[in-house]
Amino acid sequence: MSVAASPPSATQVIPVLLKGQKALVTGANSGIGRAIAIALGQSGADVAVNYVDGDAAAQEVVDAIIAAGSRAVAIKADVSDEAEVQAMFQRMYQEYGTIDILVNNAGLQRDAPFDQMTLAQWNFVLGVNLSGQFLCAREALREFKRRGIVREVSVAAGKIICISSVHEVIPWSSHANYAASKGGIMLMMKTLAQEGAPFGVRVNSICPGAIRTPINTTAWDTPAAYAALMTHIPYKRIGEPEDIGRVAVMLASDLSDYITGASIFVDGGMTLYPEFATGG
Ligand code: NAD
């Protein structure tokens, strides 16, 4: 149930900034990844839509991108599996020749109080959320360094956008595996940004607050849950996946050419210590 109206963000026009660029978005058949893939396609990029399960949902994203006038292909791969990631990049190169934009989005939760969390829960979340981003970023960096800058496409050799979370800085009880994965992304991203900059590679993170997706349905799908959520959000609305899609377009484009190593919080103020809004 949708309990509160948000701005009509899904219908806002995306500027064409990415013509000729080739993008790969992981976990792109749901939620934030889906919105990013469609926004990049609307902005002119050809998009590889990665997914791990849900063929029909992936095809629906491909269709939406093609309808927007760009090319799209669905590529099934588990981002936590090294061989599958390498095969996914090879497939992308067969399809598009190269990569200009990687959006490391795939992620999940397996929540438990710390003393009840199993090693399997810990490893599973770290494997997808952190190691998955490492494996994909490594492949993309190899191609960016091999190919270098192609001026007519972008002034940068390549762009990597890591989807982190406000929980790269906000501790989260009963989510130690998730928070650790996002904290890990922060320093992986910054280290990679430092290492990639001399080669013209820009690396940044988007840190969403609460976004209306299947990962967190219980946080927004009843009026009581939504009201409780609003106590954490000074801007007084939940985020929509398209809020993240637009920022991804901006970060991927040359408009952001001097931004690297940054965590961009897209959270309606969730990281502004809302409990101090009335003086603390
Ligand atoms: P979602 O569950 O709708 O989407 C997650 C996507 O990742 C799905 O497409 C899923 O199939 C994919 N995925 C999971 N495991 C995979 C694997 N091994 N290989 C490839 N793909 C895999 O959730 P979402 O909210 O859209 O989450 C997307 C990202 O945004 C995640 O990294 C999440 O941590 C982050 N995030 C979400 C929120 C939020 O409020 N929704 C807030 C902060 C950060």
| Strand and helix order | EHEHEHEHEHEHHE
What share of the residues does DSSP label as strand, in percent? 5-15%
Strand order of the largest sheet: 3-2-1-4-5-6-7
Distance between the termini: 34 Å
At the first level of CATH, what is the class?
Answer: Alpha Beta
Helix content: 25-40%
* Main sheet properties: 7 strands, parallel
CATH homology-level superfamily: NAD(P)-binding Rossmann-like Domain
Indicate how many domains the architecture comprises: 1
Number of strands: 7
Q: Residue ranges: pLDDT <50 for 5 or more in a row?
A: none
Number of helices: 7
Within the CATH hierarchy, at the fold level, what is the topology? Rossmann fold
CATH architecture: 3-Layer(aba) Sandwich
Distinct small-molecule ligands in the complex: nicotinamide-adenine-dinucleotide
Per the principal axes of the C-alpha atoms, what is the gross shape?
globular
Characterise this structure.
This protein is of the alpha/beta class. It has one domain: NAD(P)-binding Rossmann-like Domain (Rossmann fold). The protein is built from 7 helices and 7 strands; from the N terminus they run βαβαβαβαβαβααβ. It has a 7-stranded parallel β-sheet, with helices on both faces. Helix 1 links the parallel strand 1 and strand 2 (46-51). Helix 1 packs parallel to helix 2, helix 1 packs across helix 7 (241-252) and helix 4 packs parallel to helix 5 (176-196). The model has no long low-confidence stretch (mean pLDDT 96). Bound molecules: nicotinamide-adenine-dinucleotide (NAD).
